Amino acid sequence: MKPIGYFEGESMTRRKVFAVAGQALGGVAGAAVVLPALGFAIAPIFDKPEEDWQRVGALDDFVPETYKPRVITIVQGIGEAGKSTVYVRQGSAELDEDPNSYVAVSTRCAHLGCPVRFVQAAGNFICPCHGGVYGFQGEVIGGPPVRPLDRFQTRVVDDGVEVGPRYSVTSQLEPVRARDPGEYTGGIWEYLYPPRPSTAPAP
Ligand code: FES
Q: Which atom of ligand 1 has the smallest separation from the CA of 110?
């Protein structure tokens, strides 16, 4: 039986109009809920923080033989919780480093992120959580860490040393873009653990 009001040549019934309009409204309502949540979830991935350089001391504060601890701000605007210790020293010719350069080593363990400590007597970095041990240049010499300690870029400005963006290194201490704790670096791992887009290019 033809619906009331039907006429020959009609291509769309009122029922169909309501069905399409209902589906369109449902789609708009769904998008209004899903899109903001999606944007909220993935926006930080593409967030490119400005490069932040912080002065950590005068040139002659640092020597090649040992590290000096310095406190820097990693995350702005959250007070003490955003600060971290970084170990800084002058480059060592004995270690094939440029003596005019400065090395700034992160204290975040490359296993699960516990704070490591430089033990002067041993010349090693020790992690208190699971027994991770790193050598003088931050290379892994024991325990579960998956890569050497991260570093911060350094530069000399007005007879002082500044530290900048963090980066990671391979087991040969080659710089790569910063990774999170637990992520391997070098070789095929570069593809299996790609860096977040928000990380700075490696120096
Ligand atoms: S967090 Fe450092 S060894 Fe596990």
A: 2
